[in-house]
Amino acid sequence: MARQKGIIKLEGKIGDLSFYKSKDGYLAREKGGVDADRIKKDPAFERTRENGSEFGGSAKSGKLLRDAIRTMMQNASDNRVTSRLTKLMTQIKNLDTTSVRGKRNVGVGIANANAKLLLKDFNFNENAVLGSILFNPYDVDVNTGVINLVDLIPINDLNNAPGATHITLRGAWAKVDFATGDYDVQESNAVNLPIDGVTSNVVLTPNAAPAGSGTDLYLLMVEFFQEVNGDQYTLKNGAYNALSIVEVQ
User: Fold this and answer.
1) pTM for this one?
2) First-to-last CA distance in the chain?
3) Helix 81-93 and helix 46-68, axial crossing angle in degrees, nearest 10
4) Residue ranges for the chain with pLDDT beneath 70
5) Which pLDDT belongs to residue 27?
6) Which of 119, 146, 165 is the last residue of a domain?
7) Are residue 177 and residue 201 in the same domain, yes or no?
8) Boundary residue ending a domain (91, 119, 147)
9) Do 108 and 144 lie in a common domain?
10) What is the pLDDT of residues 220-240, one digit of tens each?
11) Fewer CB within 10 Å: C terminus or N terminus of the chain?
12) Is the domain of 165 the same as that of 234?
């Protein structure tokens, strides 16, 4: 892989060279590697097929989680969250100690206590880690999904986004079954506060307990807004909006 330089950037193919645009800029690479049909059938590539199958399963599990909370991620995620989640799911898949090689999966690995520790405190926006945005302590009731923040003073307890006049805090209780691909998510009420010195007790209560079986995930989101002529507009630059898994059961 080589980086394209110069005024004119190419996209497409010329001979054995492919030119394309990625998140890292304009790149070029030469066609190569082993024939795909050989990888599918040749016994020499059995390990490669096994690795590919497990990687695909990890990517699918990451997508399942993203799909479950997509509405919350819209304003609070970074452009590498997909790859970061796939990496995390691969680590959880590796905790599956019962399935044969090539069949290890997140649905089994998630039962390991260490898997839940890996998921806890995952930040969907690496540019706005919750711990660097919200300084006020909070507690999570895993039986009800309620998140409490006591004596929150927005001007003091938040790393406020430049230009923001208000914040909105929101919670969610998700039940995600990585074995079946099913999920249910119940978001909480949204609490909108001006960024001032007033003390507030914030209670975020999910609409209901999520249905089904699987892993219980509890999420907390902080989103910044700017008020203009009585209307609030979300700040979508991604630098400050935070979304994190704050507890896993």
Assistant:
1) 0.83
2) 42
3) 120
4) 1, 4, 8, 10, 16, 29-52, 236-237
5) 73
6) 119
7) yes
8) 119
9) no
10) 999 999 999 999 998 866 789
11) N
12) yes
Q: Maximum distance among all alpha carbons in the chain?
A: 68
Q: Which long-range contacts (CB under 8 A, 24 or more apart) does 54-58 make?
A: 54/90, 54/93, 54/102, 54/103, 54/104, 54/105, 55/86, 55/90, 57/93, 57/104, 57/105, 57/106, 58/86, 58/89, 58/90, 58/92, 58/93, 58/106
What token pair was written down for 43? 């016994």
In this prediction, residue 21 carries a pLDDT of: 79
Q: How many other β-carbons are positioned within 10 Å of the β-carbon of residue 180?
A: 12
In a domain, 90, yes or no: yes
At 106 the pLDDT is 98
Instruction: Clarify whether residues 53 and 99 are in a common domain.
Output: yes
Do 55 and 96 lie in one domain? The reply is yes
- Domain annotation covers residue 124: no
According to DSSP, residue 199 is labeled -
**Range(s) of the domain holding residue 136:** 130-248
Spatial contact of 197 and 153, defined as CB atoms under 8 Å apart: yes
- Give the total number of structural domains in the chain: 3
